Amino acid sequence: MLVATATVFAQTPAPSEKADALAAAARKGDATTVTKLLDEGVDVNSKFRYGTTALSFAADHGHLEVVKVLVARGADVNVKDTFYGATPLTWAVSPAMARKPEHAEIVGVLLKAGAKGKEDALLASVSSGETATVKVILAEGGLPAETLADSLDAAVRAKQTEIVALLEAAGAKPRPEVKMDDAQLARYVGTYRNPNGSELVIAAAGGRLTLGAGKTGVGPPQPVAIVARSETAFVGAEMPALKVSFTIEGGKVTAMVISPASPANTFAKQQ
Q1: Number of helices (H) and strands (E), helices first, in the chain?
Q2: What is the DSSP string of 109-158?
Q3: Measuring CA to CA, how many Å separate 226 from each of 177, 194, 205?
Q4: pLDDT tens digits for 92-102?
Q5: Which of 18, 89, 169, 242, CA to CA, is 20 to 30 A from 133?
Q6: Distance between CA 148 and CA 123 in Å, rounded?
């Protein structure tokens, strides 16, 4: 009896082995095995290297049925890995593996399950010309007018006529550039430094501001044009995802923040 019991235990995978099997099944798209392992008690949110989960693997590989199983079993749709800071939605929108038609459907499943980051997902999908994914995201609704305007701007520049039509049908309207004269632009010109000592330079050229690297070499290799949406809000002329917010105090520009905001992205103007 003792021998038989020992044999049973030897044949039963340790919990960590079962978790590894869950990751492998998610990568392969084996929904049957994923379901079986979850039924056997494997944590649906088991974390693997760099904090990735089975849902991230399935979303990246375009395995729709596995994604559905994992989401239905309570997988965290907003978990971020520790290497890229990417969520399952990030991987579904911009997969490292070959893109499949299922990726767009996965985006829809994740959004319906409460995935955050819809705005960035739309901009990324427009930039990559993924019409099917754009349709899915727009169908979810609830997008800010600013995001729709930035997406429309990117689609128009890329001559993506089908996506332009989709965005316009969703209510996207072009946001006019706020024009400034040389005297107004001069207020922003100068060197800006963050708490780490990195520097960026704002210059004026051709009636617009440009953002470039300072002496520390941090920043774009070539200055990029930024256009005014208001006195304090600017976006990249060729990359609407780049957002620059200026602080104006007493009529003087004192700082700028590069989106997304963080201490390292806050730059004080050097007087």
Answers
A1: 12, 8
A2: HHHHTT-S-HHHHHHHHHHTT-HHHHHHHHHH----HHHHHHHHHHHHHT
A3: 10, 19, 10
A4: 999 998 899 99
A5: 242
A6: 9
